Amino acid sequence: MTTTGRRALLTAGVSAAAAAALAGCTGSEDPGPRKPSAAEVEAERVARAEAALRLRSVTASRTLLERYDAALAAHPALAPRLIPLRRSVAAHAAALGEGGTTVRPATAPPTAPATASASVSASASARPAPAPVPVAPDPRAALKELAAAERTASDAHTAALVTAPPEYARLLASVAAASAAHAFLLTEGARA
Fold first, then answer.
1. How far apart are CA 178 and CA 141, in angstroms?
2. Distance CA 111, CA 8 (A)
């Protein structure tokens, strides 16, 4: 057999294999849905658990953010003290929601910057308005309520550390520590 003959044979074999592969892809025989492997099932379970964890964490931070907004609306004189802490809580909520997880956007706060995206405001307006957050009429009591809410958020983030993946656990630990510091600043820090 000559070299040309071998090339022709190889070319014909490759063409036949390609035709057979295409026929298998477009054939009328449907083997049915492919059963996922154990690794795929486990990866999906882990992804769902992480998404649920992120949603709980973001919800805790957004609930805290709503409490700050309510306190600011009820006691505008506390703004110089509360606005820096509120900004920090807003940044925590944003950071906790990052990572490709589908998390519903927070409701637009009354002091939201004008640069908020249209998609956030559109989806926020599509949902029913949240119930108003009760705020103590006394500013000192309102600060104590915010401190208690910060401690609750800190505890929730700390409890979530057990099941969080390593990188997210580091973020949760940082946010939990910041919430504990906020609680101190809202109560004991004011006395200093």
1. 21
2. 75
Is residue 123 within 8 Å of 104, Cβ to Cβ? yes
Q: Are the C-beta atoms of residues 63 and 130 closer than 8 Å to each other?
A: no
Tell me the pLDDT tens digit for each residue of 56-106: 999 999 999 999 999 999 999 999 999 999 999 999 999 998 864 444 444
Tell me the two tokens of residue 91.
Answer: 């940044």
Of 41, 106, 25, 103, which is closest to residue 68 (Cα–Cα)?
A: 106
Q: Are 128 and 164 in contact (CB under 8 A)?
A: no
Q: How far apart are CA 41 and CA 104, in angstroms?
A: 25
Could you give the angle at the alpha carbon of 152 between the alpha carbons of 147 and 158, nearest 5°? 125
* The pair of three-digit structure tokens given for residue 120, joined into one six-digit string: 């956030």
Rounded Cα gap, residues 63 and 153, in angstroms: 9
Q: How far apart are CA 176 and CA 28, in angstroms?
A: 57
Residues 6 or more apart from 173 whose CB is under 8 A from it? 157, 158, 161
